[in-house]
């Protein structure tokens, strides 16, 4: 027979969520008037705490459901009568009726407040559920392995209640090549969801049609500008809108091509440069030619330069949004991402993003003020090289 100690039992009960049950919460809050009654009985007559029992229903409204509030009321009223019977309340014979009337009024208000709070909690839970579904629909989870590469992703919305914001990432595959998109739409939170949806859908469709990286970027530019014009027209009752929303809307982005063979290729559209992490060093991969973000493509001739990136075995390529590097600490300093990465160059993608996340939270010391998205791509150490080293070592031992 298994023997369960008290700590283990408490732990199991806590993990089971029983402490959140309305009846349990109501019973716990009901201890408040009971404790006051005991204190009243044990203390001298000059010290009376019975009048504080009126606060019990109000306390219950904060923590309990209407059922819990009723439990607290059912316990509080007898406690008031008992306190008067054994404790000789101050204020004469009229004190207890007045206190009872006060408790009844407070209880009615507490029941109403608890019902309103419960309805608001359900509405908030529904909103969170909708936000989570929206996030799963828009931001499909990236696979852990893409061809010969290990991949990890992280998303943190500045609007924690919304669970989604203006940063984005996506994955799509075509033939022997896979593409990853990471971007940052103008603005943050739910206001930028229209732009995010347009970019993600166009990216996946273009990649699956077998387009090259420049063709994907051109498709993103055309679809984004058309979508912004349609949104602007709809916002102005069907009339074309020439305001700031149409003229200044943009999305910075990086399109990364991961072929099964050969080097990586990427197009940087006004986005913070990726970081190459390898053997204790961090290299900033600035684009050879500066290209404006999506939505501002008319500032160029339509050419999309693509940089070739060599990713040696054991190296990691980190894509990130400016919500990481522009996160300020309590002293006003920006988060030094490049400097901090030198500590974790040997970590796998999942562990690397977890380390950055924890360190970023510690640096900020409060909630984030901007959305954060990161994608790490790592080429695992070559097993061929490891095998060669093992053979060399065996040969050396045999020769000795």
Describe the structure.
This protein is of the alpha+beta class and 400 residues long. It is 48% helix and 16% strand. It is built from twelve helices and eleven strands. Strands 1-2-11-10-7-8 form a six-stranded antiparallel sheet. A five-stranded antiparallel sheet has the order 3-4-5-6-9, covered by helices on one side. Helix 2 runs antiparallel to helix 3 (55-63) and helix 6 runs antiparallel to helix 7 (213-235). The protein is elongated, with a radius of gyration of 31 Å. Residues 1-16, 239-245 and 384-400 have low confidence and may be disordered.
Task: Output the strand order for the largest sheet.
Answer: 1-2-11-10-7-8
Strand content: 15-25%
Element pattern in H and E: HHHHHEEEEHHHEEEEEEHHHEH
Mean pLDDT: 78
Query: Largest sheet at a glance?
Result: 6 strands, antiparallel
The level of helicity is 40-55%
Measured on Cα atoms, how large is the radius of gyration?
31 Å
Which descriptors apply to this entry?
400 residues; alpha+beta; six-stranded antiparallel β-sheet; five-stranded antiparallel β-sheet; 12 helices; 48% helix; disordered C terminus
Can you describe this structure in just a few lines?
The protein has 400 residues and is of the alpha+beta class.
Map the helices and strands:
Elements: H1 6-15, H2 22-42, H3 55-63, H4 66-87, H5 95-138, E1 145-146, E2 149-156, E3 167-174, E4 177-185, H6 193-208, H7 213-235, H8 244-248, E5 251-259, E6 264-269, E7 275-278, E8 281-284, E9 307-309, E10 316-320, H9 322-325, H10 337-341, H11 349-364, E11 372-378, H12 383-399
Antiparallel strand pairs: 1-2, 2-11, 3-4, 4-5, 5-6, 6-9, 7-8, 7-10, 10-11
Helix pairs in contact: 2-3, 2-4, 3-4, 3-5, 4-5, 6-7
């Amino acid at each position: 027979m298994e023997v369960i100690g008290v700590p283990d039992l408490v732990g199991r009960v806590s993990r089971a969520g029983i402490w959140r049950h309305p009846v349990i919460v109501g019973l716990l809050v009901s201890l408040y008037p009971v404790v006051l009654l005991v204190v009243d009985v044990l203390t001298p007559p000059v010290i009376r705490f019975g009048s504080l029992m009126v606060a019990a229903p109000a306390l219950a409204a904060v923590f309990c459901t209407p059922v819990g509030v009723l439990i607290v009321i059912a316990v509080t009223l007898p406690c008031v009568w008992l306190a008067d019977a054994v404790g000789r309340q101050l204020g004469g014979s009229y004190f207890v009726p007045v206190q009872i009337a006060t408790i009844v009024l407070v209880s009615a208000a507490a029941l109403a407040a608890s019902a309103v709070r419960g309805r608001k909690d359900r509405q908030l839970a529904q909103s969170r559920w909708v936000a989570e579904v929206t996030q799963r629909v828009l931001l499909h989870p990236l696979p852990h392995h893409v061809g010969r590469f290990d991949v990890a992703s992280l998303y943190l919305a500045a609007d924690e209640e919304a669970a989604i914001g203006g940063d984005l990432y996506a994955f799509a595959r075509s033939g022997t090549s896979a593409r990853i998109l990471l971007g940052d739409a103008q603005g943050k939170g739910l206001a930028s969801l229209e732009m995010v949806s347009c970019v993600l859908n166009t990216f996946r469709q273009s990649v699956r049609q077998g387009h090259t990286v420049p063709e994907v970027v051109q498709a993103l530019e055309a679809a984004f500008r058309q979508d912004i014009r349609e949104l602007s027209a709809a916002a102005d009752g069907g009339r074309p809108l020439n305001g700031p929303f149409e003229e200044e809307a943009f999305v910075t982005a990086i399109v990364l091509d991961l072929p099964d063979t050969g080097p990586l290729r990427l197009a940087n559209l006004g986005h913070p440069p990726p970081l190459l992490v390898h053997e204790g060093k961090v290299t900033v991969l600035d684009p050879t030619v500066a290209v404006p973000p999506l939505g501002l493509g008319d500032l160029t001739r339509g050419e999309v330069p693509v940089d070739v990136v060599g990713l040696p075995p054991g190296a990691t390529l980190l894509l990130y949004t400016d919500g990481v590097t522009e996160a300020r600490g309590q002293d006003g300093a920006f988060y030094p991402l490049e400097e901090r990465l030198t500590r974790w160059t040997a970590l796998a993608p999942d562990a690397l993003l977890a380390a950055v996340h924890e360190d970023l939270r510690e640096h900020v010391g409060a909630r984030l003020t901007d959305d954060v998205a990161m994608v790490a791509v790592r080429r695992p150490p070559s097993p061929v090289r490891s095998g060669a080293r093992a053979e060399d070592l065996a040969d050396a031992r045999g020769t000795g």
